[in-house]
Amino acid sequence: MVKPFVPQLVYIEPRALDYPLGQTLKDKFENMGIEIRETTSHNQVRHLPGNNDFQKYRNAKSTLVVGVRKTLDFQSSKPSAEYAIPLATGCMGHCHYCYLQTTMGSKPYIRTYVNVDEILERADQYMAERSPEITRFEAACTSDIVGIDHLTHSLKKAIEFFGERDFGELRFVTKFAHVDHLLDARHNGRTRFRFSLNDAYVIKFFEAGTSRLVERIEAARKVSDAGYPLGFIIAPIYIHDGWQEGYRHLFETLHDRLPVKTAVPITFELIQHRFTGPAKRVIEKNYPNSKLVMNKEERRYKWGRYGIGKYIYQKEDEALLQETIEGYIHHYFPDAVVAYFT
Ligand code: SF4
């Protein structure tokens, strides 16, 4: 069982101490006996322990920076939401395929932002611009926010904030099962709590440092019992020997351990495995022994934003993946909604 995340090293930006949450976190980490260093800016967190890049990368992923979010412009977050709400960046998990490896570049440590009220005020402005249309906010674009929230409770605050808004909804996805502190949050059904799931092979070989499948499903059951709209992201859907049986077993396990009927239909989001040229290079550096196959010749190139295209499955493989996974969903969860396959 993966224990709740505890950083080995904490950096605190001095400005963070102007906010109550900054002070609370400082006291908390002092009481936990964790080494705390002061830094004027997260860009100065350069001297992370470690003799080489490999060690530094690993140490960074257990380092937490407590800072202030300066940019209050939210990025877009299609297809699952209109905006990404930035409560934290970085993650302590070691998923080989994770896109944060490229987006976080040389700074893979975890950052949490203490100016949560300012971030939520900005969300209010975005909602006002679009009302009466509902604006959806995704809180897990740049981190696995649930995985650190037992320390910060920023997500819990955001859940309760959206619980009181008429024109906004919150959503996030996690691979961590440490959800107990979120069960009594006053969500008013306005937060969709999603879990990222995969078959046994993918979890075993590519998702180190995250909660195991049955732990995630058990957490999903608790969340559903707490009245949250529930969803699952099956990603990355990956072809390997025995994948059809592997994914069938995943849905069977899910079916056996979850109530099939929920007040709000369960949603499934389906994302096939993809990689970019730069990501392949970074993955091979960070996880040199990975079994993850990224063979460009076996894939189809799809142009992407910013001129960086990605390698997805060939048309026939893609069609088979979609048909197979959607078939399992319709069989085991006839009332569920498949939001998209991409
Ligand atoms: Fe990346 Fe999510 Fe894995 Fe964290 S849990 S390393 S954010 S894929």
TrEMBL record:
<dbReference type="InterPro" id="IPR007197">
    <property type="entry name" value="rSAM"/>
</dbReference>
<dbReference type="InterPro" id="IPR049539">
    <property type="entry name" value="SPL"/>
</dbReference>
<dbReference type="InterPro" id="IPR023897">
    <property type="entry name" value="SPL_firmicutes"/>
</dbReference>
<dbReference type="GO" id="GO:0016829">
    <property type="term" value="F:lyase activity"/>
</dbReference>
<protein>
    <submittedName>
        <fullName>Spore photoproduct lyase</fullName>
        <ecNumber>4.1.99.14</ecNumber>
    </submittedName>
</protein>
<dbReference type="Pfam" id="PF20903">
    <property type="entry name" value="SPL"/>
</dbReference>
<feature type="domain" description="Radical SAM core">
    <location>
        <begin position="77"/>
        <end position="305"/>
    </location>
</feature>
<keyword id="KW-0456">Lyase</keyword>
<dbReference type="InterPro" id="IPR034560">
    <property type="entry name" value="SPL_Bacilli"/>
</dbReference>
